[in-house]
Amino acid sequence: MSSPRLFVFGLGYTARVFAERARADGWRVAATCRSEEKRAALEAQGIEAFLFDRGRPLADAGAALDGTTHLLVSVPPDQKGDPVLDHHARHLADLRTLDWGGYLSTTGVYGDTKGEWVGEAAWLRPTGDRQKRRVEAERGWLGLYRQYGVPMHLFRLAGIYGPGRSALDSVRDGTAKRVDKPGQVFCRIHVDDIATTLLASVAKPTLGAVYNVADDLPGPSHEVVDYACRLLGVEPPPLVPFEQADLSPMAASFYADSRRVKNDRIKRQLGVTLAYPDYRAGLDAQFAAESAR
């Protein structure tokens, strides 16, 4: 019996952690990237790599996808829609070896709940264009399951952090800000806990299922920066009112929504135990690992 084959559309920060966990379990991994240089680098690491982007579909989709047992899609939709669906929905519908598929979405599809808790069954009320495109992409992936039986699962991810992409890193490089917007809360999830959730779904697939992937402690972002500064033994940057924070349009857009995201479904249905149930546990572990080097 051959080992599972994972095909990843878009091997970014989160997808790579999942792919490395799969490789450690003996899976074969193939992935897409957008440049010839990146393709060569992935091949050198033992990952079969294919060029893909909007306007550049897989050169031979049948050959690239052949033998794929597990699919992960982490390519975000663009202004024209979901590029993977637009180019390769038909090929995926024809893929008879597929046992499991996952689409990485965002909790941004819920919009602004004014800090109230929200679960997977809630109405989707996205506030921005990026979030609205995510809702449409989710519909497309669920449609692929309902129409053609492609075994898809949706994972709505909270704010992702982990080594190289945490408050510790932003404090060190001088980009951390403490922004005060009263009543504002964010949800987060450690990248390792995302990989754990995906693997739990692989082990216990429920086709068409939707999962929130968030930790147990929503809270304001400035508290996370405070905690990172305490670990590093440095003075925190000044607390600045949101209106005076001089944020980029992208950064400011995250403050348009305030919500608390329920995560009980991944615990109850998938048996997930979070390694990092709050940002303190995640930052403590990262700081300890870095200090031990």
How would you describe the overall organization of this protein?
The strands form four sheets. This protein has a seven-stranded parallel sheet with strand order 3-2-1-4-5-7-11, sandwiched between helices. A two-stranded parallel sheet has the order 6-13. Helix content is 39%, strand content 18%. Helix 1 crosses helix 7 and helix 8 runs parallel beside helix 11. The protein has eleven helices and 13 strands. It is an alpha/beta fold and 293 residues long. The longest helix has 20 residues. The chain has a domain of 202 residues: NAD(P)-binding Rossmann-like Domain (Rossmann fold, 3-Layer(aba) Sandwich), CATH 3.40.50.
Binned, the helix content reads 25-40%
Mean pLDDT: 96
Provide the spatial order of strands within the biggest beta sheet: 3-2-1-4-5-7-11
Helix/strand class: alpha/beta
In angstroms, what is the radius of gyration? 19 Å
| CATH architecture annotation of the domain at 5-161 and 188-216 and 260-275 | 3-Layer(aba) Sandwich
Taking pLDDT < 50 over at least 5 consecutive residues as the criterion, the unreliable ranges are none
What is the number of helical segments per DSSP (H or I, 4+ residues)?
Answer: 11
Q: Number of DSSP strands?
A: 13
Instruction: Give the percentage of residues in beta strands.
Output: 15-25%
The CATH homologous superfamily of the domain at 5-161 and 188-216 and 260-275 is called NAD(P)-binding Rossmann-like Domain
- Reported by name, the CATH topology of the domain at 5-161 and 188-216 and 260-275 is Rossmann fold
Shape: globular
Order of helices and strands: EHEHEHEHEEHEEHEEHEHEHEHH
